[in-house]
Design goal:
The chain is of the alpha/beta class. The chain is 19% helix and 29% strand. The strands form 7 sheets. It has a 7-stranded mixed β-sheet with strand order 5-4-1-6-11-8-12, with helices on both faces. A hairpin with a 5-residue loop joins strand 9 and strand 10. Helix 4 crosses helix 7. The structure holds guanosine-5'-diphosphate-alpha-D-mannose and magnesium ion (MG). Magnesium ion binds next to loops.
Length: 364
């Protein structure tokens, strides 16, 4: 079985995190998200994953190579210019040998891929779209289906008032190779705006596979934070941290001292230093090699590797990319996203929802 993982997007909504890291490589509890996706594919019996890449492809290639470390064969196909979600599939058509999974590269879900394959074998048709119900479908593809489960309409990101359903495209498909024949080669084509609607209009049979699985698109900072919160709260099991040794919802790798200042749930990766009087948590994820200064407080936040928080600084509801440094007594408020290597001055006050990248200097 093969899968195509769409990993070519620029991840604009996650900037500045995605200036240095392509969206699929953003870490989730210390492991690149794409690595988790590839492990999931392998466990479902997928032996080859084709990575349809474009933006920062070398970061992906350097991490996974031919896939032997992960036990899955990897093929990289890099677009010179973005081909869109269907153009990217057409671009890998030469590699496809039978029915194949397609995964949006930013979706975290507990979907059982084997069950989806079994559903497709039972229903037949050109393919299956995994769907879930959400409160606000306007940021997604709406999937309208008839009582037999056959897709009657696909409407990408409709205005909220005119959304035809609350059932949305969850970004995992199982497609027959025939779908590729309908995509024009060599140009940018959207599967959501063009290919699916055209197939449906032409009488092609696509089926919706509605589940109530855990599902989140990590492509926005608030969703990336929420996914971590959900794992820490036990709503979603992920390994690690779920299967790592944890005492009272504290996942600690190596020396995190002194534990008295950890307020669970927290995840502390290897080689982290927490100075006396600092408080960490609840809902804090500290990346490997990060350092929390004396008297500092970090809550509801995700720190990537090598982040340094100065003495007495306060960080709440924020994401800090690798090697970001927050000066002494500085304050980083809810919704802030701090890029790789960014420096925040001592005593600075970073307003709610700020995006700070290394090229800017963040003063008070
Ligand atoms: N190779 C390649 N080339 N990949 C691309 C390109 C491209 O030109 N454009 C986007 N992608 C990849 C992204 O990297 C991502 O993994 C996936 O395609 C979807 O793109 P997003 O930019 O994340 O789309 P979205 O989240 O706004 O909407 C999509 O996902 C929703 C579910 O999360 C659509 O498929 C919606 O219909 C769906 O509901
Ligand atoms: Mg997305």
């Amino acid at each position: 079985m093969q899968a195509v993982v769409l990993v070519g997007g620029e991840g604009t909504r996650l900037r500045p995190l995605t200036y240095g890291t392509p969206k699929p490589m953003v870490p989730v509890f210390g492991i690149p998200f794409l690595e988790r996706t590839l492990m999931r594919l392998r466990e479902a019996g997928v032996t080859e994953a084709i990575l349809a890449a474009g933006y920062l492809p070398n970061a992906i290639r350097e991490a996974f190579g031919d896939g032997s470390r992960l036990g899955i064969e990897l093929t990289y196909v890099v677009e010179r210019a973005p081909l869109g979600t269907a153009g990217a599939l057409k671009n890998v058509a030469d590699h496809i040998r039978g029915p194949f999974f397609v995964l949006n590269g930013d979706v975290l879900t507990s979907l059982d891929l084997r069950a989806m394959l079994a559903f497709h074998r039972k229903r037949g048709g050109l393919g299956v779209i995994h769907t879930i119900r959400v409160d606000d479908p306007s940021a997604f593809g709406c999937v309208v289906r008839d009582s037999s489960g056959r897709v009657a309409a696909f409407v990408e990101k409709p205005p909220r008032e005119s959304a035809p359903t609350d059932e949305i495209n969850a970004g995992t498909y199982l497609l027959e190779p025939a779908v590729l024949e309908s995509i024009e080669p060599g140009k940018a084509v959207s599967i959501e705006r063009h290919t699916f609607p055209a197939l449906i209009a032409g009488g092609g049979a696509l089926y919706a596979y509605l589940t109530s699985d855990y599902w989140i698109d990590l492509g926005r900072p608030e969703h990336y934070l929420r996914a971590h919160r959900d794992v820490l709260a036990g709503t979603l099991r992920l390994d690690p941290p779920s299967n790592a040794a944890s005492a009272a919802r504290m996942w600690l790798h190596g020396a995190a001292n002194p534990p008295a200042h950890l307020r669970p749930p927290v995840f502390v990766d290897a080689d982290v230093t927490i100075e006396p009087g600092a408080t960490v948590g609840p809902y804090a994820v500290l990346g490997a090699g990060s350092r929390i200064g004396a008297g500092a407080a970090v809550a509801d936040s995700i720190l990537w590797d090598g982040v340094v928080i100065g003495e007495g600084a306060r960080v709440e509801g924020a994401i800090l990319a690798s090697n970001a440094r927050v000066g002494d007594r500085a304050r980083v408020r809810v919704g802030s996203v701090i890029g790789h290597d960014a420096r925040i001055d001592a005593d600075a006050d970073i307003a709610e929802g700020s995006r700070v990248s290394a090229i800017e200097v963040a003063h008070t």
